[in-house]
Design brief:
By secondary structure, the protein is an alpha+beta fold. Helices cover 31% and strands 27% of the residues. The protein is globular, with a radius of gyration of 17 Å.
Length: 241
């Protein structure tokens, strides 16, 4: 659990159905820069927690200097990919090891982000919630074309099948930039949260609580709704930027 004086709060919970927690997260403050990241070990694959730890360690250890943060994020993610492949090459028993990666670097009035998998970034602005990232899942195309509704997708047997991850054969991360406004709020989370909570529920909790209170309520509600997966949440207020 993380509580800091930079308007951010984060926590990860194992949930009630998993034997271990394969989620990892990062909150790191550097001069002029704050790095936030969530990684979720790919379910059903060996050593997902190890892969998620490699992702987070790579973002923690990469030397961000702030000259080109979009490129630096890509380089940090590429470092994680190389490290995972290196571990697999050393030990073939690790074949299939992978993790999601969703990260944000905050600098002045900009938030640069990069994303692979089905962890998510949300932006709360003017009390309205917007999903910034798009899930790299098998059923996302059906959602895009309207042949599946979000409610149908929640119960689809292939809802957790990823098309991309860090460590998968092909990785084409999405990336982007958000021009920050005062009183914006960011949420980074693993799919253990969004499996159980609708965007409307998330919006309501983020609107009425402090970062810590919102984060605690989001996790508590996901657990009360079944807690089927590990759940990780980072809530960051952006009034400082």
């Amino acid at each position: 659990m993380i509580r800091k004086n930079i308007g951010v709060w984060g926590e990860s919970h194992k949930g009630y159905k998993r034997k271990s927690n394969e989620d990892r997260f990062l909150i790191k403050e550097m001069p002029g820069i704050i790095i936030l990241a969530v990684a979720d070990g790919v379910g059903g694959n060996p050593h997902g927690g190890q892969a998620a730890a490699i992702v987070i360690d790579s973002f923690r250890e990469y030397e961000f200097i702030g000259e080109n943060l979009k490129k630096e994020l890509s380089m940090a993610l590429a470092l994680a990919e190389r490290r995972i492949h290196h571990e697999v090459n050393k030990n073939p028993n690790l074949h299939g090891m992978g993790a999601t990666a969703t990260a944000v670097v905050l600098n002045n009035s900009n938030a640069f982000w990069i994303h692979v998998g089905d962890s998510r970034i949300y932006l709360l602005r003017d009390k309205k919630l917007k999903q910034i990232t798009t899930d790299h899942t098998f059923i996302q195309d059906f959602l895009n074309e309207g042949s599946l509704t979000p409610e149908q997708a929640k119960n689809h047997p292939l809802k957790n099948m990823l098309e991309q991850c860090v460590g998968c054969d092909e990785m084409q991360p999405d990336c982007g930039e958000i021009r920050i406004k005062n009183d914006d709020r960011l949420l980074l989370c693993s799919d253990g949260l969004t499996t159980h909570l609708s965007d409307l529920q998330i919006e309501c909790m983020l609107n009425t609580k402090s970062t810590q209170e919102a984060g605690e309520e989001l996790i508590r509600t996901a657990l009360k709704s079944g807690g089927e997966d590990n759940v990780t949440v980072i809530v960051k207020d952006l009034s400082y930027y």
